[in-house]
Design brief:
The chain has 522 residues and is mainly alpha-helical. 47% of the residues lie in helices and 9% in strands. It is built from 22 helices and 11 strands. The strands form 5 sheets. Strands 3-4-7 form a 3-stranded antiparallel β-sheet. Strands 1-2 form a two-stranded parallel ribbon. 32% of the residues are buried. Glutamic acid is lined by residues 43-45, 77, 229, 233, 247, 251.
Length: 522
């Protein structure tokens, strides 16, 4: 007979619904988590910035929740006091908002299961640690760091795997009481049962098994009375009604400890889904050494949120066909954990750049302009008229990879070129070029209106009159006008620049370029 979980896996809500009808027949215990919408969480440790891997985890949780009409919770796991970074929580929530991943419950938003910042919940974890002590599932240990180091060295020497040797269990209850009363620093360790198999179902990996003998008696509560990640994470997932734990593969090896904790407390397990690792192109684990890993770095480079979201969505999930471009809405409709693979996903920055170009092209011109505005101001282009900038965007949109290209690659639309492509000058500027280009300028003076058809006609007629190929005029003209060897169609570009600018730049270009040619030929 199929279990509720299996039925649910076959499809989302219909499975639940069919099952609801059948349940009385089979005398199933109705799992309230399954009949209600799922609750998932993103549980970052605020270490300063959001890693692209974290963004992927947040995104998959968000998509899963939205797709299943569930709840997406943000929980801050800040119980490791040594790793705290000032302002990290604000930075994190701001980055998630920028990415469009709104959470339903969490810091600043509130919700029925708050507080959502673990450092504000420490009493709670202490109580649960004490409960485990009472039920014999955990114990106090009083070892000093030096004693633990000596133990590890000894284990290394004996070539046995490093593991707490349970010396604290030799203490009598009276000795433990006395040490606690004296205030000797104590930790609480979980008592991992010997020689059993800890098993859990992973939505992505199938059945995962660990021998309990490989597990250390994990510290649950540290001597500063703060919980470790393991205790706080399990207690909160339970208390916050989390139905699906979707997180990175690096946590697989912690999960057996968590499963044991659920068993110790007599709590029902959530479903687990461990997402595949993110890899560098050389298949090593994604690292800073081989490129940027912080979302804010990509943001600073002008990568659009749509592109970054689209890109990380495909790091592990695929739609089952060749499509590659998705909006957040499309992803929400299509996402399912069933299409997340096990094998590592390569982080390919060229692909991200390509996606950024695609998403830039899909944007309305006005939006591109507002995204480009900060870089334009930075480049000293504060005088630019918005109507003119929009004409430029319409013309060059297909060639932009980030909105800020407007202030860099296409800066020449707003100020006279500062430099001229040396390569194009060498190839296209001959001794006779100056005269030819001056002749074009002369003919352009009378063009009115100054539109691309009329400009083209005049340029081609001049070429015929001078008996040269049109290319002999087109390339040097482009060089004078933009300083570049390539760009949008010359005649459209001239129309956007306007007659006055074109004539001024041609004049200036001829002067500079012929001097340079003389200097380099002479
Ligand atoms: N606090 C952990 C982290 O920083 C969360 C892992 C989990 O989702 O359980 O990624």
């Amino acid at each position: 007979m199929l279990s509720l979980i299996q039925l649910q896996r076959r499809g989302n809500s219909p499975g639940v619904f069919v099952h609801f009808l059948l349940a009385p027949l089979f005398h199933y215990r109705i799992d309230p988590n399954i009949l209600t919408a799922p609750r998932v969480r993103f549980a970052p440790s605020p270490t300063g910035f959001l890693h692209v891997g974290g963004l992927r985890t947040a995104l998959y949780n968000f998509l899963f929740a939205r797709n299943m009409k569930g709840t997406f919770v943000l929980r801050i796991e800040d119980t490791d006091r040594t790793r705290l970074v000032e302002g990290a929580v604000e930075n994190l929530t701001e980055t998630l908002r920028w990415a469009g991943l709104d959470f339903d419950e969490g810091p600043g938003v509130g919700g029925p299961y708050g507080p959502y910042i673990q450092s504000e919940r420490t009493d709670l974890y202490r109580r649960y640690a004490e409960e485990l002590i009472r039920t014999g599932k955990a114990y106090y240990a009083f070892d000093t760091p030096e004693e633990l180091d000596a133990m590890r060295l000894e284990q290394q020497r004996m070539r046995i795997p490093p593991k707490y040797d349970r010396r604290a269990l030799k203490l009598t209850p009276a000795e433990v009481e006395a040490k606690l009363a004296e205030g000797v620093p104590a930790v609480v360790r979980m008592k991992v049962p010997e020689s059993t198999t800890v098993r859990f179902e992973d939505r992505i990996r199938g059945t995962v098994e660990f021998s309990s003998d490989r597990l250390d008696d994990q510290v649950l509560l540290k001597s500063d009375k703060f919980p470790t990640y393991h205790l706080a994470n399990v207690v909160d997932d339970h208390l916050m009604g989390i139905t699906h734990v979707i997180r990175g593969e690096e946590w697989v090896s912690s999960t057996p400890k968590h499963v044991l904790l659920y068993q110790f407390f007599g709590w029902e397990l959530p479903e687990f889904a461990h997402l595949p690792l993110l890899l560098n192109p050389d298949k090593s684990k994604l690292s800073k050494r081989q490129g940027d890993v912080a979302v804010e770095d990509y943001r600073a480079k002008g990568i659009l949120r749509e592109a970054l979201i689209n890109f990380v969505a495909l790091l592990g999930w695929n739609p089952g066909d060749e499509r590659e471009l998705f909006s957040l809405e499309e992803l929400t409709r299509e996402f399912s954990l069933d299409r997340v693979g096990k094998s590592g996903a390569v982080f390919n920055v060229e692909k991200l750049a390509w996606m950024n170009t695609q998403h830039t092209r899909r944007k309305p011109d006005e939006e591109i302009l507002s995204l480009a505005a900060p870089s334009m101001l930075e480049a000293g282009l504060e005088e630019v008229a918005p109507g003119y900038a929009l004409n430029v965007i319409t013309l060059v949109k297909e060639r932009m990879s980030v909105p800020s290209d407007l202030a860099t690659a296409f800066k020449y639309f707003f100020t006279d070129p500062e430099q001229f492509s040396e390569q194009s000058r060498k190839k296209n500027w001959r001794p006779e070029t100056s005269g030819n280009i001056e002749a074009v300028a002369e003919a352009l003076r009378d063009v009115d209106p100054f539109d691309e058809g009329a400009i083209e006609r005049v340029v081609r007629e001049t070429a015929e009159r001078l008996d040269v190929g049109a290319g002999k005029l087109i390339h040097p003209l482009r060089l004078c006008l933009s300083g570049e060897s390539v760009g949008p169609g010359l005649f459209e570009m001239m129309k956007v620049l306007g007659k006055e600018t074109c004539l001024r730049r041609i004049n200036r270009g001829v002067r500079i370029l012929s001097e340079e040619s003389l200097a380099s030929n002479g």
